[in-house]
């Protein structure tokens, strides 16, 4: 069973920055596609940023240029660096991984609140 544990969420003022971390238990982390999703009140869960095992990335239009996904295959950790945060970025952020069989694993989520 793959376990994902997010950390780094919190309260930040508009224009501020946060870095989210997701530690994975799998020993074949480098073979997994990784992603960050978020869900805000009243909205659908959406893909924020993704990184395939080969390094290809994709971003939601709303965060492109402000958020950066990265991974450390030695530490089995994926990161989401967020800058220039806006109130509309407020959501619960979830770490997601997908193995080569297409099976998905989810973290419990971490709250990000952008407010003055």
Structure described in brief:
This protein has 116 residues and is an all-beta fold. The chain has strands spanning 4-7, 10-12, 18-24, 33-39, 46-51, 57-59, 67-72, 77-82, 91-98, 104-106, 110-114. It has no helices and 11 strands.
Please provide a written account of the structure.
- This protein is mainly β.
- Helix content is 0%, strand content 50%.
- The protein has no helices and 11 strands.
- The strands form 2 sheets. Strands 2, 4, 5, 6, 9, 10 and 11 form a 7-stranded mixed sheet that branches.
- The model has no long low-confidence stretch (mean pLDDT 95).
Reported for the largest beta sheet, the result is:
7 strands, mixed
Write down the overall mean pLDDT: 95
| Number of β-strand runs | 11
Counting helices, strands and paired strands, the structural category is: mainly beta
Helix percent reads under 10%
**What is the molecular shape?**
globular
Poorly predicted runs are none
Helix and strand sequence: EEEEEEEEEEE
| SS summary, helix count | 0
Strand content: over 45%
Keywords:
116 residues
SSE layout and pairings?
Layout: E1 4-7, E2 10-12, E3 18-24, E4 33-39, E5 46-51, E6 57-59, E7 67-72, E8 77-82, E9 91-98, E10 104-106, E11 110-114
Parallel strand pairs: 2-11
Antiparallel strand pairs: 1-3, 3-8, 4-5, 4-9, 5-6, 7-8, 9-10, 9-11
């Amino acid at each position: 069973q793959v376990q994902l544990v997010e950390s780094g969420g919190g309260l930040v003022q508009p224009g501020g920055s946060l870095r989210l971390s997701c530690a994975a238990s799998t020993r074949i982390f480098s073979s997994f596609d990784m992603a960050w999703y978020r869900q805000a009140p009243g909205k659908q869960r959406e893909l924020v940023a993704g990184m395939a095992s080969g390094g290809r990335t994709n971003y939601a239009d709303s965060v492109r240029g402000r958020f950066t996904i990265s991974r450390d295959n030695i530490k089995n950790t994926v990161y989401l660096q967020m800058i220039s945060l806006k109130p509309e970025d407020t959501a619960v952020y979830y770490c997601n991984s997908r193995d080569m069989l297409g099976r998905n694993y989810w973290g419990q989520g971490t709250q990000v609140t952008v407010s003055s």
